[in-house]
């Protein structure tokens, strides 16, 4: 009677924490949990393949983009998830996150944690050059103009590796910022040509201000850490590393890999706006526990409940800087988990609380992003379709081709609409 | 033990018939040699007897028992291969004893028999070497040793000496003769070497194209060949053949003289005359002779000299004279045939006797 | 004697096979059987499956036949004997497109559970429960509650309801096994522009990769043909790329060629050869123009081809070297006597002698390169203009879950290869076969 | 004096000068981390003059005194120093002087040796086409050696060196591939230690070894009888069977993966080593069968016939004669199969998700896909490579023999 | 053109000296044959002349010009290899013309010369075949054709016939003789075949262990060998050697009779007597003879019979008698030596004359 638990948190130190959690769970229930790391980029294919083969694990820790498609494909047992959700108390969860995974009469999976995407920039350089914080297309382009000076300094490190989720995330963020969405309440909605072209041009501009090639989170971080990039888009997981708390990803701007100097020079923006959407938008990712249809349902439910309750703080402690609590508290204390989380130390090789590393403003920006953040299709109730569009990587591919000058902007929009229309 | 009888044996490779119905009786203890031109089926016939090839038709009896369908292991024969086929991964001792070991003979007995064979073949010094570390002649001895220890009904040899150099070949030939004398076992031996066949055999079987041309003792084949093929095949250098014609009891060579024809009573008429180089003597061009010609080439070999004599209007004839005689190239000479040793052949190439 | 052997030739070759050969035949079949069974199962089977799937509109998920999924649970938290509880079956049609007919649920009621209420359509015979559900719609879901009371026996057991698994049977149309065929997969892939560019890339990759490996191998073989101290060492070294795990060398190349932190780019920029780092594996093309005509140089594809040539030249090197060493040296001595210069000897003697092995190698390497998946998958994932047919099989079948399309591409691969090999074997130099 | 001969001499020297300088300059850079811009022009000039002097001294035969190459070496050194203004690597001599000195010595020695080897019998007088071509070929071969050695060795060098560094050092100076002994042994091998302690590589190593060896055993068990039957026994369909085995070459592994994935999952064989041990032999048997039958065919049939005459049955012949004689072929097939199994990536990648049974290849992929630092990835690559290379070097002879004997006739 | 002179030529392979200082003068147009036991350095010497091996010491002159340091292509010689060394991928025509092509001879001239050579060697029919499609003899002809077209100063042959079967060997031997006669070019020929050496050579050079034992015409070597080695090496079957002692002008065989010793005036005293099998005749055991013995083995060859006669108290002696005579195995006979053809050797194995 062993539960199989797929997790995308596969670095050894994070795996170790999850295994501790599993051990604790076994202690309590006698049910063994086999923690299986799966690369995030493989998760989609592997899950589909496993479903086809009738060999699904019991529980999957997955991102928002899979929640609804998987529920629809029959991979997820939404009833079980809903039951867990209700057992834990729907009201203890942050409402937005649960809504994103809502299905008929419940949730597709149980929301666990979330984070918002950030524009990380060199506050020192911006101040030096009298630049405004990069919270809009305009400001960013202005900064590009000023700061781009390759190869010593790239103004931006954009995302251009089309098979990386990272590119989808960044693109969606940029498009959202200008109010572009491929869905409305009735399903597919052709992209607005003007807004899309603005966003495409912007994206092309920042990509041209980036180093050549297939870029994704790896290069963004390396270059920023080396002091060779002025702006990047990244998740909050970078916060501890930026402060020199993790040896395997050290800031290399100075000779001292443990220095938090770079952190102090860094500013953060979560909400980005475009010319046609003055309000701007933030982009959030939520992670869920999904219980599969091949699962030993009861045991799986127990495990999820345990992880979301007694084990919740351990779950969050895997990487507190990028795992903001979605469950605020338990029946006894409505803010138990939020409070507990705030005290969790971040970092791997060295530990420190976030509050020690960043000023209060920054932290506030980071955390509050989660409340306003959105995704395509959430408001419209078409998250599932939007996720499929994203998962198909069509947008990535065509945008990349646009960046590579294979097609002009208008043609790209047309082509995008064509291809997206095919996706049901 | 050791009498082998072939009855109408045929061998087909697919639709190619290689052995075309052979009847042969090998007596126990006889030394039989198969000779014939390359590709005539000597090896195949030997392999049929050994059981390494399946007989297509006909039967093979050993000591009166039909063994046609038995595998090699069931026939109780030994074979010595041209390439020796020693097991390279075994010592000489193990090579020789291998056949006994597979037969489940107890160790001491194997050792005894192997040593006995080693004594006979003077192999004692090499018993622990691998075949690779032996010379050609030693390897050949090991191969024979391997055949001996199993005390087979008959030995089969397939050109056992052809990989040895001339001197060694002479030595091993004598050794095999001695072995046959001492063991008295039936031996069937394939060779294409004249000398081996003549010196070793009790009976030579001349094969051509899957058929037996003649079988008999060496002297029989040399002196009384059945047909032109055997006549030219046996004897070295080979018999000269000249066209001839007959009138009454005299034969004549076209444009030359003639002589007495001994088989006047036989109905078949000869068209060719055969005479061996060693049975021709040189005379002056005007003395009594059968024919005249010009010496084209002389080959001086020390002991003998060969003359290539271009007969006037006929072929070139080879003549053997003693090495001490000298004949100039280009000189005209007469040739005289030994009349008791001439052979006559009819239009079907059959000898007239 | 001679008259006696000269009998008429007998009636032609014997028919059938003799007993010795029959024994041999059976032995041979027996010895070959395991090999053929395993190959049939592991290779031929999947291959046929591919052909089958390629003419069916199958998604990855369709591999799982439509079925009613069932989940059995105990509801109502009974705590003492006599408490009532519900044994609940959750049922769900796994398919969203296919209905399932004649659905019947069968289960054993756990010991100690006394049934008090049966849902409609259910019968209880002893402890055997059987519920007839009938035809269910695509996407249908339902719950069946079996009410009852529990006894101590029941409570004492650990999750007693799991003692027997509920079994649901039903018939459904299964795209995988039915006999409806379609060429939609083929028409879909053939009509996509992408497919043709993939095909083109595949041929570039295969031809240049193969050619590169062959030329490098030929050159390396020339180097190591003559004996010199250290030859053994160099021969070993030259084989490294081939012997090492693809995973190791592929990642090493990626690291080495990395535009930001790769040694090679650092070297090139520091030495002033190029001004900006080159993204060897990420950049689709470098544009340049000659006399105003723009050209595109497919950078990533070239790098991948270079990798292919680098990794597999040792194989051709080995074979060519072996062949060269088996060429009689007498022939070269004869050529020396004939006054041939070294280059003449290479051109007129070595090269023609090597044609046989070169063409065999070309065939083998062509096939293998055409089939290559790992290398490109690891180096570029098929991006930046390096997607070949095999990567496309993976993308279509696995990443996009369109199994039918993937299988159709696989069929194309197979057909191209068989065609090529047949043509090649027919028209290539015949000096030595495989 | 022939202009053509002089030109040939000069070009030879020039080529070697430039070549040696670039190679040595880059090596110096990689070893020390200092950017040494090679002075190609000066080096070319030095080589050119060195070559001319060498041939001149050679031609002046019987002149006695120091050998020609000594003159040449001196000229090379002097010209290089003068033409590069005493900074042959554009570094001030005070920077890493020991390494620079060494590099200079290697340069002079290398260029002189190359000139001497290439122009051994050259002269300024008329040379026959034969003699000139001998020189061309020497030059081409020399350059070939250098280039091949570099392109083959460089990636492996980078692999090993990267694995010994820290992420920070790597990012700071990608050119610096020297070994930083200052961090001590534990610092150097940190990646390896972490891989073995945290990333479970010890286990992967065991799994890989087990899978590879088991594959070898299974493959041999199945392919030896098959190969024997195909090569020695006569039976209807022999040629067809022998050839059809080769059809497997035509089937891309990726085509097999998807159906096998489904079936194995249903049989519970996916994500098990048993599953791998069914697939691996299936892919190696045809190759093994092919190599072995080539070898078996090459064994003299008479040996087996001798065995038959000695009273063995067919099976006895195989066991007692054929197999012992085939040891080299068995060794090479084993090695080849071992290599295939050890290096196999696709099936391991698709079939295995449980880290407890990862093979090394599978383990290394998982290093790539997470935020694991690059030196770990490279250390993983080294761990995956070293065993197979060691085994290969040990048995190289066999591999070479077997590979070629098996598939190439004549 | 074609006179070759070796002056104190030595060849060392590392520390192994294979050729130990050879002086030899080959006249223009002479047919010189190197013979000697295997490994004595025949091939090496030929390769030194060809330039395929570098000469370690000494000089080689061709037509008075020192060619020691020239590559093969500069010496103007042609070579025919034992393995023929034909280019397997070229047609016979291209094989023969290759040497001309590399020399840049115009196409028409190549064609003309090749056709001329083909005429001489009767190769016309095979000109477009590959070597693989030719028989051994034809291949040998092609190899010779290749050597001819270049009109070399001399031909070098390294055991050119040893891969042919006996009959073909005889034929090709005659052909080479004819070729030499018609071309008149110098030929240097290595063989280990007695008959070839005796029949072809103008001058035979007997080598042993890298040194020349004797050089001279075939008859000289057969009749007047310089030493025991040459005496036994030349002539087949080889010379019988028996220990003997001398008293005045008579020699005697231990335990047997004796005869006249012709070299009584020579200071060196012989210890051995050599006599060839063909110079011994059989007498009755009691007639006049030099010695008596028992016939151990008789080998009947048709034309001749060889007797292995075990002399009382001495070695076995081989005797050749005519095939028509018969001697029983085991019978006692007397042997009479031809006194004019006996050879005496001193303790240093040098012949006494
Ligand atoms: N396995 C076989 N399949 C087909 N034909 C064969 C086979 N073995 C032999 N032959 C043919 O049978 C004929 C006789 O062959 P065999 O080997 O018996 O000749 P041979 O007299 O021994 O010749 P040699 O003196 O060359 O050894 C030849 O024409 C040969 O080609
Ligand atoms: N390349 C070489 N390296 C070392 N030793 C050699 C070489 N070539 C020949 N030898 C040795 O030189 C000696 C003479 O060899 P060579 O081939 O000239 O003999 P040969 O008289 O031609 O013999 P055969 O009649 O067997 O051809 C032999 O002992 C041989 O081992
Ligand atoms: Mg034969
Ligand atoms: Mg020789």
Rounded mean pLDDT of chain A is 87
Q: Enumerate the spans of chain A where pLDDT stays under 50 for 5 or more consecutive residues.
A: none
Order of helices and strands of chain B: EEEHEEEHHHEHEHEEHHEEEEEEEEEE
Portion of residues within helices of chain A? 40-55%
Which ligands does the model contain, each kind named once? Answer: adenosine-5'-triphosphate, magnesium ion
Biggest interface, chains and residues, is: C-D, 98 and 101 residues
Organism (chains B, E): Roseibium marinum
Membrane topology (chains B, E): Peripheral membrane protein
Subcellular location (chains B, E): Cell inner membrane
Protein name (chains B, E): Multiple sugar transport system ATP-binding protein
Keywords:
heteropentamer; B: 353 residues; alpha+beta; Rossmann fold; OB fold (Dihydrolipoamide Acetyltransferase, E2P); six-stranded mixed β-sheet; five-stranded antiparallel β-sheet; C: 434 residues; Immunoglobulin-like; MetI-like fold; 2 domains; four-stranded antiparallel β-sheet; 53% helix; 16% strand; disordered N terminus; binds adenosine-5'-triphosphate; binds magnesium ion
Tell me what the structure shows:
- The complex is a heteropentamer, with one copy of chain A (424 residues), two copies of chain B (353 residues), one copy of chain C (434 residues) and one copy of chain D (410 residues).
- Chain A has 424 residues and is of the alpha+beta class.
- Helix content of chain A is 47%, strand content 16%.
- Chain A has 20 helices and 16 strands.
- A six-stranded mixed beta sheet of chain A has the order 2-1-3-15-6-16.
- With 353 residues, chain B is α+β, with helices and mostly antiparallel strands.
- In chain B, the strands form four sheets. Chain B has a six-stranded mixed beta sheet with strand order 6-7-8-3-9-10, with helices on both faces.
- Chain B has two domains: 230 residues, P-loop containing nucleotide triphosphate hydrolases (Rossmann fold), CATH 3.40.50; 106 residues, OB fold (Dihydrolipoamide Acetyltransferase, E2P), CATH 2.40.50.
- The model of chain B has no long low-confidence stretch (mean pLDDT 91).
- By secondary structure, chain C is α+β, with helices and mostly antiparallel strands.
- Chain C is built from 14 helices and ten strands.
- Chain C starts with a helix and ends in a 7-residue tail after the last helix.
- Chain D has 410 residues and is an all-alpha fold.
- Chain D folds into two domains: 180 residues, no CATH class; 206 residues, Orthogonal Bundle (MetI-like fold), CATH 1.10.3720.10.
- Helices cover 76% and strands 0% of the residues of chain D.
- Chain D contains 18 helices and no strands.
- The radius of gyration of chain D is 29 Å and the shape is flat.
- Chains A and D meet through helix 1, strand 2, helix 2 and helix 10 of A and helix 6 and helix 11 of D.
- Bound molecules: adenosine-5'-triphosphate (2 copies) and magnesium ion (2 copies).
- One adenosine-5'-triphosphate binds next to strand 2 and helix 1 of chain B.
- Chains B, E: It is a peripheral membrane protein.
- Chains B, E: Keywords: ATP-binding, Nucleotide-binding, Sugar transport, Transport.
